[in-house]
Each structure stands twice: as C-alpha cells, then as structure tokens.
Design goal:
Helices cover 92% and strands 0% of the residues. The chain starts with a helix and ends with a helix. The chain is rod-shaped. The protein is mainly α. It is built from 1 helix and no strands.
Amino acid sequence: MDTNKHEWDFEKLVVAIRQTLEYMDVQAGRAINISLTLKN
C-alpha cells in the first residue's frame, strides 16, 4: 500500500475544504452587504 499517495490525497482534501470555506465566507459577506444595502 502506498501511504504517500493517501497522505497527498488528504492534503489536497484539506486544501479544497479551506478554499471552499474561504469562498463561502466571501459569498456570505456579499449577501450580508446586499441585504443591508436593500434594508437601508
């Protein structure tokens, strides 16, 4: 069994999750800004 391949796959998974969370944070911020703009 090649453990290095599994570790690399895990690292790619961690990076993908981080990138997804960062993207979702940006989108949430935009949604909040739009909401506040419309409210005001």
